[in-house]
Amino acid sequence: LRPPMVTGQFHTLFFGSVRMFFLGVLGFAVYGKEALHFSCDPDKREVNLFCYNQFRPIFWVLQLVIVPVLGAFFHLYAACKSINKEDILQKSFYIIFYIFSVFLRIIFEAVAFWLQIQLFGFKVNTIYMCDVGALGKKFNITWCMVPEHFEKTIFLIAMYTFTVITVVLCVAEIFEISCRRTGFLKTQ
């Protein structure tokens, strides 16, 4: 079942292809072999691996899995009940359920955006300061060199941009639903 609104269809296309392609291909190019080049002082394997695990941002993968699942709940329900696009626009329960799923996407994207800013900020620094206290080291803070920090910063800003675009598309979809329900836009 395709999303009932044009903006929802564009969101699905944008999220499903552009964003996942960007993360999968370019994210792997930037972060793929990073563990081999991530080095800390002292340059010991256990320190490097420990600090690298603190640094590596797996958050985007989690975001890219959860956001489509939130929208899929409605589509799964609609497919099981054999609900078509016209029924969604005409029956209040379906519209409310659909809008609720879009609101969940907006909320998750906003929370993810805030968490990303808290975790990563807007720039990946050349030096990452790692807390190695759990390893029982003499000094709790170790400095690590981050490979390709400039490329990672560009990737970070792109991921933020994709998050903002996704939220704007979700808000536009709710606006489109409201306009269609009130009669400002004709249903095709």
TrEMBL record:
Keywords annotated in UniProt: Cell membrane, Membrane, Transmembrane, Transmembrane helix
Stretches assigned to the Connexin cysteine-rich domain: 108-177
Any Pfam family matching the protein: Connexin
Localization terms from the record: Cell membrane
GO cellular component: connexin complex
SMART domains: Connexin_CCC
GO BP terms in the entry: cell-cell signaling
This protein's name: CXE1 protein
Organism of derivation: Aramus guarauna (Limpkin)
